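So, can you check?
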Amino acid sequence: MFLQIRDVNKQFVNQNAASTVLSDINLDIKEGEFVSILGPSGCGKSTLLSIVAGLTKTTSGEILLNGQQITKPGKDRGMVFQQAALFPWMTVEENVMFPLRKEMKKKEAREVAHQYLQMVQLSNYTKHSPHELSGGMQQRVAIARALSMNPKVLLMDEPFGALDEQTRSRLHHELEKIWLETKKTILFVTHSISESIKLSDRIVVMGTRPGIVLEDIQVRIPRPRAQHPQMTAKLEERIMGLLQTEIDKVVKEELAYAANN
């Protein structure tokens, strides 16, 4: 298996109290799959992605990529955050070239940057500064920067969460087109059921307190998904039922806690 998440647990200790964020997470992800991680706030979605990125350590368990244990960040994993996190003093071209600065000569790095800026339809903005771009365009630069490293896995932490609905829909189309062209393995964190259905091969639905895998769902709806509204609605209803049960559980726990304190 390409990406293996094995018995991953994560606890955070605060003022001598331990909080379990992730409990016994096990996932196998094939090369080239688009997998979304979906769940309520606080279920550990972003923490899991950070562990795969090598930015956060597990309390126990391990992550394997092509059989090699992940213990730190590496160029085999590209990360796209909710905010584009571009360097404001650099041009669009320079931002995409930045992770390549130690890997290749400047001319070659510029050619690679232009290749991926063309892929995200920003060839005409290479000399612009980030502040001259819209939020959606900045996210496209961030995607181009992550892809420029030619990572084995693209990790995306709610990359479109802060965008308006129209911009988000347009970027869904562009991301799907990029994925179909590159066949990169993508691990995508989202709060949106419709977003996960539109983009994913699989949807990992998570519960909270602690973060666990409720269900790992294969999306068997042909692409493009917009052409199959009945199948999409049926799957959306199924996922909503899973999440509503989880929300009801949390509310019940909070009411019980309030009654006893």
Remarks:
- The mean pLDDT is 93.
- Helices lie at 45-53, 92-97, 106-119, 135-148, 165-182, 193-199, 229-259.
